[in-house]
Amino acid sequence: MQKTDVLKSIEYYCTKETNNICPFTHEKCKKVGRADLGVCSLYHNGNHQIICPNLFSKINFAKLVAKRIIGTDNVDFLKEFKAGNNFIDYIVVDKDNPSNYFGLEIQALDTSGNYRWLFGNKVKPFCINWKTTKKTIVSQLISKAQIFKKAKKHLVLLIQDTFLNYLEADKYRFSPNKLIHICSLKYDGNKFVYYSFHSLNVTELNSLLIESEFDLNKAVVEKFTK
After folding, report:
1. pTM above 0.90, yes or no
2. Helix or strand run (H / E) with residue 216
3. Neighbouring residues of 2: CB distance < 8 A, sequence distance ≥ 6
4. What backbone torsions phi and psi does residue 25 show, to the nearest 5 degrees?
5. Residue 224: what pLDDT?
6. Where are the beta strands (DSSP E) in 173-225?
7. Which of 81, 171, 196, 217 lies at a C-alpha separation of 20 to 30 Å from 19?
8. Angle at 94 between CA 194 and CA 27, to 5 degrees
9. What is the CA radius of gyration of the chain?
10. pLDDT (0 to 100) of residue 180
């Protein structure tokens, strides 16, 4: 499906001409409406900033880290897995051993303003809302990491390198930790060109990880073997 650029600022695939079908999920785009198109990324401050998590599906993101985390890339996926009061984006499961798995969360960037100014409309221009993005993912990590702590499993956060740079500048520290890991990808507007891998150790976050009562190990095995 051909990408279309508007003033070199917007990357999108879903339009009325394509019936707003996302080429990555093969479902109706949930972001259509702001400018009658589904926006995947924005060129902002010298970078192509990913604002739709489905864009990460340009690569096999789960297999990218599976071998590193659980020792195999022969995996299957449980999407939007319900774990207590939380939904995990993906549980990545070893096909040969369903008790060998990890969680994968994907965080794109939030925006404020409106894209329609690119088409001549008198509206507030768009910008990246870094603070809201940070608040969203930190609160989710606190809630979801409690579940993985009890299960003694890994939780991987997949983000763009520009967001990782923002977190580091905001004094989040990265050092060895066996629970939460961050995989960051660089995106040039056409493809992902490399990734880096970090382990997250935020003192304030660790102190909040009260062990959850939810049995994730049992739930994953039961779901995968049905």
Report:
1. no
2. helix 216-224
3. none
4. -100, -15
5. 83
6. 180-187, 192-199
7. 81
8. 65
9. 18
10. 75
Is the distance from CB of 147 to CB of 212 less than 8 angstroms? yes
CA atoms within 13 A on the CB side of 70: 28
User: Which pair of tokens denotes residue 206?
Assistant: 């660790």
Identify the three-state secondary structure at position 155. strand
DSSP secondary structure string for all residues of 65-118: HHHHHHS-S-EEEEEEEEETTEEEEEEEEETTEEEEEEEEEE----EESBGGGG
- Position 199 pLDDT exceeds 80: no
DSSP class of residue 141 equals: H
Give residue-wise pLDDT tens across range 21-69. Answer: 887 778 888 766 555 666 788 777 778 888 888 888 777 777 778 888 8
Structure confidence at residue 35 (pLDDT) = 52
Q: How many CB atoms lie within 10 A of CB 138?
A: 15
Residue 190 phi/psi, 5-degree rounding, is -135, -40
Cα dihedral across residues 13, 47, 58, 101: positive or negative:
negative
CA–CA distance, 63 with 71 (Å, rounded to integer): 11
Break the chain into its structural domains and give their ranges. Answer: 4-224
What backbone torsions phi and psi does residue 88 show, to the nearest 5 degrees? -90, 130
pLDDT tens digits, 150-165: 888 888 888 888 888 8
For residues 61 and 45, what is the distance between their CA atoms, to the nearest angstrom? Answer: 25
